[in-house]
């Protein structure tokens, strides 16, 4: 049995935040708009206004999500400083929080993701974020850096997805949009019941031919959620989600290929098939069901307990192998909360546990022009992971907040190679680690991140026996608040993060992905977000009009890192741009007309450890204009048109880091356009 045993001891915040409220527009599916002052941040079980959360947390609500094309959450998340979501091809996403995608050639790793109360990440940290449609997201909270005691091991952070609307109203809505590359998106949504008996059914169908050769995709997602208030003390929440996704994978290009024809797929090279010949693609079907119960025992004690089960059927005809994976896993999470006011001091204690169990089957075959051929490896992987956590939170007079927490994390992986005769099991033991941390938001927080199953098992079926967990310490300070009668909102933080045993991805000349510990990294950064409300229900024409800017500075270097006889110490970490800047203007009028304009600058990005290959800097300009109006007491209409990359910029997004033969580049679409309509029936 392979065992990882971890301890994340003591996240301690010491912060002073102004008690004044923060406002910003958040447009929901009902009118009028809500303000950020009314939105409660649930991270760390705080349930506080954003200004009162002493941690690097960013919030993405309906206002940010609906600024773009209603197909992907990618552009909305990329407004947040320190966060970069990438798309290697339609349906293939990667999430980068402060450089976390260094170990993610594809998919989402090193970021713990929760869908409401349920872990969406599997027992060893891989997340199929593409199993959700744009319409499954009502709001998103992202905890940047070491995720903290309540969410277990994780260096990149945590994402909390909230799927139920902030304001409840019975509606039946149909949304339809179309765009360049034969992209279509159809969504049906029905909300039935009342405030105490909420039922939501959603169906989405998305289709695209893609910008590049071999980049078609189609996706069908059906979900049902129910939230029932049984009594004043008890609330039940249940959901089911089924996703059927197919997308083609065009593969990375060399610079010469990218420069000559960025829309081409990876061509035939040596003995390896090209992406078209191999019919490189992913067939992914996922079914998830979950149930949670919130119970208030008395004025001081309450509990939330959730259980879930997930089954993923994953087939991947790749460049080198034809992979078939079956990934059933289940688990649960329980959190007890104690809250009491003692004089002018409020004490809150949270404690609980989380556990996940997985039984994965992975078979790799030779890929014979898109069909499975000779069996290469057959692996059975047994995964078990649990967390025990506790956190104490004291809110003192005059806005002082002190938080301390600790968690114990343990993971075990047993991999049996069934294709060997006789079958063989892989064993490796990691020693327990205790990392004390002290912080002042100013904070000092420790974090650990275990290797995932995909990182332990190379894509040619061999198993890495010397891969160790990452561990590091994050030093952070920040301030957020509002000025000028709450018209100006600001959120500024700086951090220094030292990471040891950094897990980085390699791709050999045969296209095999594998992972190594790369010594240490030194990561320093500044993240800022500022918005200013130009009009706030005070003019005859304009309504909730604002300008915002987001800036991220990253100074990420390797510390001590040698690979064989090559010394990369002091080099820039690949995959992270030094400067990222986003500025936007939102204009809303009382007639229903609106406009959302966004400019993005991303600095050049190094693509390998030697810093000899780069992706060029790029400028993007996106726009969406539309008209929304309540036609009557029962009907609401919205129509919109827009464009992405109006500058027609040639750039690469979702680059393959440290790829062999220089195949780093995955070209993103040039100028593309979209239009859509949404019609809602508001029922009483």
Instruction: Average the pLDDT over all residues and give the rounded result.
Output: 84
Largest sheet properties: 22 strands, antiparallel, barrel
| Rounded Rg | 24 Å
**Number of extended strands:** 41
- The residue fraction in helices comes out at under 10%
**Share of β-strand residues:** over 45%
Structural class: mainly beta
Low-confidence stretches: 1-35, 429-440
> Any idea what the shape is?
globular
- Please count the helical segments: 4
Distance between the termini: 57 Å
Written description of the protein model:
- The protein has 684 residues and is mainly β.
- Helix content is 3%, strand content 56%.
- The chain contains 4 helices and 41 strands.
- It has a 22-stranded antiparallel β-barrel.
- A hairpin with a 4-residue loop joins strand 27 (470-483) and strand 28.
Outline of the structure:
The chain is mainly β and 684 residues long. 3% of the residues lie in helices and 56% in strands.
Structural key phrases:
single chain, 684 residues, mainly beta, 22-stranded antiparallel beta barrel, five-stranded mixed sheet, 3% helix
Outline the secondary-structure elements.
Layout: E1 2-16, E2 25-26, E3 34-35, E4 40-41, E5 48-49, E6 57-60, H1 62-65, H2 74-77, E7 83-89, E8 92-97, E9 111-115, E10 118-119, E11 139-144, E12 157-162, E13 171-179, E14 183-194, E15 197-208, E16 217-229, E17 234-248, H3 255-260, E18 281-296, E19 301-317, E20 321-342, E21 345-368, E22 371-395, E23 400-417, E24 424-426, E25 434-436, E26 442-449, H4 453-456, E27 470-483, E28 488-500, E29 503-507, E30 513-517, E31 520-535, E32 545-558, E33 562-563, E34 566-567, E35 579-588, E36 593-602, E37 605-606, E38 614-615, E39 618-630, E40 635-644, E41 672-682
Parallel strand pairs: 1-25, 9-12
Antiparallel strand pairs: 1-23, 1-26, 2-3, 4-5, 6-11, 7-8, 9-10, 11-12, 13-14, 13-41, 14-15, 15-16, 16-17, 17-18, 18-19, 19-20, 20-21, 21-22, 22-23, 23-24, 26-27, 27-28, 28-31, 29-30, 31-32, 32-35, 33-34, 35-36, 36-39, 37-38, 39-40, 40-41
